[in-house]
Amino acid sequence: MQNSHFFRHTRLKHSQSNISVGKKKRGSFVKTDNIPAEYELIYRAPMGTYISIAKNISTMTAIIICTGAAYTATNEYKLPKQRFEYIGLVSQPDDFWYFAVGFIAITMIIRIFVSKYPLRIYHSNGRYIAVYDSQLPYLSSKHVFSKGEVKEVISRFNPWNNATYRLGNRTSLLLSQYFRTPADYNHMLGYN
Prior knowledge:
Layout: H1 2-19, H2 23-33, E1 40-44, H3 48-75, H4 95-115, E2 118-124, E3 127-133, E4 140-146, E5 150-152, E6 164-167, E7 170-173, H5 182-189
Antiparallel strand pairs: 1-2, 2-3, 3-4, 5-6, 6-7
Helix pairs in contact: 3-4
């Protein structure tokens, strides 16, 4: 019993700190996101920095692996044949290619997840702007939609079924407890 109370208290405390974004912090978000001044911040996703870091690190690593694979492929017959050691990351020379393809597949999955995860949502007079982390490093992309254009998406194969919504024409993952108030969440869904 004591553990569940602790987790509930921690979650509530985190949720309250998310709601009370100071004017200085809000101003930095508005400036960074290039949002008009009349828009209010109503949603701030957790772990936005970690999502960006994971995307950038996985991309850099995939580029390094692709560069190594391209170098190996173009110079395979030019380099002297060496005895391959059966120690380390791969046990056969062909295993490197499987590793590279698998790592690139994981990077693509991370990219798909990042493209569906809005970092912040702003509201003004029934219009909304969702800010996403861009596919390019250190940039963001924006998606504009209106009140009532939000629909819940249900799919059997989606592990985040209860958090998947269609914002206008873009499918997104939203965590309802990170809205400023429950009224903001319900208003965005089209309820009065």
